[in-house]
Amino acid sequence: MIEAQAQKKALTVDKPQNLLTVSPPSTKRKGQSDYQQIELFKDVNPLDWEDWQWQVRNRITTFEQLSQIIKLVPEEIEGIKKARGRMSMAITPYWFTLIDPEDPNCPMRRQSIPTAYESQVSPHEMVDPCAEDRDSPAPNLVHRYPDRVLLLATEQCAMYCRHCTRRRLVGDKKTNNINNWDAAVEYIKSNRKIRDVLISGGDPFMLNDNALEELVKKIRSISHVEFLRIGTRLPVSLPQRITEGLISSLKKYNPIWISIHFNHPKEITKRCRSACEMLVDNGFPLGSQTVLLKGINDRPYIMKKLMHELLKIRVRPYYIYQCDPVKGTQHFRTPVAAGINIIEKLRGYTSGYGVPTYVIDGPGGGGKIPIGPNYLLSQAKGKYVLRNYRGKIYTYLE
Question: Does the annotation count 323 as an active-site position?
């Protein structure tokens, strides 16, 4: 019944009906779900809780709601009141169960609740730091690299991450129209050099099953497209979206690679693990993309823990991104040295599969530039002086 309803209609967003209050953690009874600790959700039917559209309709979006739940600090109060229009606050009930209501430094809280720091813009920040709009030959399409394109399928997300690079686009609640993709699809058809298509957004998994399948089918019908990817955060922020209906609608077009945005070990819950396992078991290879965020995951031990937890659920660590210089995100950015140090503490100290590539997206449209520790000390006439992860020096002769 739930799946049938999800396929019949496009996503609609309703306002939550009640304010929320949280029972103290010590009152949790054995066998009681985390969401049952929240007064508003204590009587929710488990089938409703598992309905991804119910989760979206009941997102936490206002200061009045949060102030009943969390002891907000002044920076959050100001940030919430200023968050209007695009990138307004939206937190799924599922994600909210992971927030520490007493700790303003909780990594889940900092990623989802606006703060006053978003109003502070540094001289080097830009609206579109990756120059995607400049490299757009057709609506909703970005063509930067010779053999691959980025197709922005929707502006909608389940939760508005406060570090979002595409904050100029996301948050538009208009209904998606599949005809908006026609020009992008025609461009891909006309350019036989394109062998790789990444469907992103917003979040493509916010589309209903029929709409997403229609787009994937159009891309798959293009003979020279060899590699198809979908970029999403919903297995993390709304794992209920990974349904049998979604799997069924996409599986027939495999192989489809899924890139999932993970930032912190706390995001890998039992429910998230279940969603990822469902994707992997049905033939979807998974990779992770992580944004380096100050005070959230910029310690090597946190990042190593995240990489280990990802491998345990069969997600291959792929990229760590330096946080882009998009307007209103300077409080999230770390020195580049912090990212290099993380790779230094991973390489050789954990499985090679657990070492992602640290990249900076070149401001102004330079694309992904890999950055890392310097292991090549010198080279001359076939002689290479190298250092290993422990700092020991070795010479390789060609």
Answer: no
Provide the pLDDT for residue 20.
38
- pLDDT (0 to 100) of residue 5: 45
Q: Which of 59, 109, 162, 166 is catalytic?
A: 166
Of residues 106, 161, 272, 323, which has the active-site annotation?
161
Whether 147 is catalytic:
no
Residue 134: active-site member: no
Report the candidate in 256, 253, 213, 206 with the shortest Cα–Cα distance to residue 234. 206
Domain ranges within the chain, ordered by starting residue: 2-117, 141-370
Please confirm, yes or no, whether 166 is among the known catalytic residues: yes
- Predicted pLDDT of residue 87: 67
Sheet holding 196-200, edge to edge: 141-142, 148-152, 196-200, 227-232, 257-261, 286-292, 316-322, 357-362, 367-370
**164 a catalytic residue:** yes
Whether 84 sits among the annotated catalytic residues: the reply is no
> Does CATH place domain 141-370 in 3.40.630.30?
no
Which entry of 218, 266, 368, 387 is annotated as an active-site residue? 368
Residues of the chain with pLDDT under 70: 1-40, 85-87, 172-179
Choosing from 106, 130, 164, 276, which is the catalytic residue? 164
Is 157 considered catalytic here?
yes
Distance between CA atoms of residues 53 and 5, nearest Å:
9
- Residue 114 is encoded by which pair of tokens? 């606006």
Told to judge if 144 belongs to the known catalytic residues of this protein, a careful annotator would answer yes
Residues 172 and 156: beta-carbon distance below 8 Å = yes
* CA within 13 Å, CB half, 146: 1
| CB 117, CB 293: distance < 8 Å | no
Tell me, yes or no, if 161 is annotated catalytic.
Answer: yes
Which pLDDT belongs to residue 82? 86
Show Cβ contacts of residue 237 under 8 Å, excluding neighbours closer than 6 positions: 92, 94, 95, 157, 158, 159
Q: Is 81 annotated in the active site?
A: no
